[in-house]
Amino acid sequence: MAQTIIPAVKSICAGAALALLAGCGGDERSSYGPDMETDTITVTANRKAYSESEPPAAPPPEAGANAGVMLAYSYSMGVSVPKGAVEPMMSAHQQQCIAAGSDVCQMLGSSVNSWGDDRVAASLNLRAAPQWLEKFRTSIASDAGGAGGKLTENTVRAEDLTQYIVDMDARLEAKKTLRDRIKVLLETNEGSLSDVLAAERALSDVQGEIDSMTARLRAARARVEMSSLDISYQSDPETSIGVFKPLTQAFGDFGRASVASLADAVRFVARSWPFFIVLMIVLAVLRAWWRGRRKA
Length: 296
What we know:
Blueprint: H1 5-24, E1 40-42, H2 61-66, E2 71-81, H3 86-100, E3 105-115, E4 119-128, H4 130-146, E5 150-160, H5 162-188, H6 193-225, E6 227-235, H7 237-240, H8 245-295
Parallel strand pairs: 2-6
Antiparallel strand pairs: 1-5, 2-5, 3-4, 4-6
Helix pairs in contact: 1-5, 5-6
């Protein structure tokens, strides 16, 4: 039985590979993304202004989960409010997520930017449980209306991860079975040191694949269990700019425009005076020549 470990391991690996190809139908992908065959469903139109106070309801993820379909929902909302309400509204929504707890809502990022005195923009990115997120999205539309603004964007997308999760689960179980059989061979067979080391390397490779597949499967399930939401806040130009502000800006720019015009005149003189001197010399020479010709 001195040389039985390596042939047995190779036989097990070959049989497991054939089972994976036959049962799962394809090579294992390193991650779900553009190369993964998923379905993306756009539920509402992008950049659409809503007169109602509540956004259109999206299909609940629980209904698809109960039917055996695992959908990862992602939401995108846009709010246009007066300049002074942008940052307070974003901070209030951020505090609501923090107060709900990390098991319900998780902050992914936020930012506030301003341009001059009129334009303010902010963004908030979070991930939350579907039940809590449904109520939160309704409150966003209500907050925008209460602040004198409106909802400018409300997009819902769903990515079907059912096939990916089922296939990955099947591959993971096959890898675990292969790992257990290699362990049994190491425990029940004896061989040379090189054979034992080769079998242990094969066991280590299989365990590494199991850990990687487990992490990717956990990430995919997390996307199904918690939906993502991106909120963009913009200041409303009509309410941010006063009626007389263009006139006050014109008076404020009067002195600057006058000085700029004077500077342009000085630059013109600085560029043209050498040509003026040359012209005077040429005219003087022509006048002297003309006088000499008349005397002659």
